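Pipeline run #58 for the internal structure catalog. This entry was flagged by the ingest filter as a single-chain record with no existing model, so it goes straight to prediction. Upstream metadata was stripped on purpose; only the residue string is passed forward. Reviewer on rotation: M.T. Logging verbosity set to normal.
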Amino acid sequence: MDVSFLGGPRPQRGVAVVAPFDFALDRELWRWVPDEVSLHLTRTPFVPVEVSLDLARLVSEHETLGEAVRALSAVAPEVVAYACTSGSFVGGIAGERAMCAAMSGAGDALPSVTTSGALLEALEELRIRRVALVTPYTVSVTRALERYVAEAGIRVTGCSFMGLTRRIWQVPYRDVVAMARRAARPGAADALFISCTNLPTYDVIPQLEAELRIPVLSANQVTMWAALRRMGTRAVGPYQALLDEAARAWPVLPEEAQGHQDHQEHGEGLT
């Protein structure tokens, strides 16, 4: 069979992704990636520890990260991304920066991002100063995330967590939505962040943004957005505020328009 007419395959650009050993959502990461980009994933070594601060420290050790990045160097990626939220916030902002430096050092000065660093980058991009948090973690891991966000000068206005230590990838969308509704009180937060790269979020983001009327960020979303940004390209996704500026213009609802009219009729809000 003569296949010369096909003219392919198309040139591919690579993102090296280092994920914890229990990461189960490879397919979700791919959903934010444009056709011309490939993901090259590797896992950190298995350790018999449940999801906890101890596990976060183990999967983010610089030696472990360096070995993982060197293992991916053969495919010549353009950027390396560490896809783990707790592993990248457990050491605070200084720890996250040191992780990026360690990965870049192991990868011949490749640009490096982490999930938690990408979160702060996304909050800055959207000019967010108040955020609500959703996590599947235990209370101690959740509090560490709150401290990390607060260290960046972001106020946490609400938080909902599940207390899980395993099989986080099996949490159904309905539970994620229920947690989001509890965490994001109307008018209190400028954005919602759904933590943990092992928590499925792709399909709920547009629904929650339409309902809550604030940007909704998730761990996998910000990781892919930041990594692709360093390549000079864009993440793809259906009507997500982080990815599409048009999605950041929240329409005025009929009841809000009526409330504004009532205020004017009673002379409120006039200067």
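catalog note: The chain has one domain: 12-244.
catalog note: Residues 12-244 form a domain with the Rossmann fold fold (CATH 3.40.50.12500).
status: ready for reviewer M.T.
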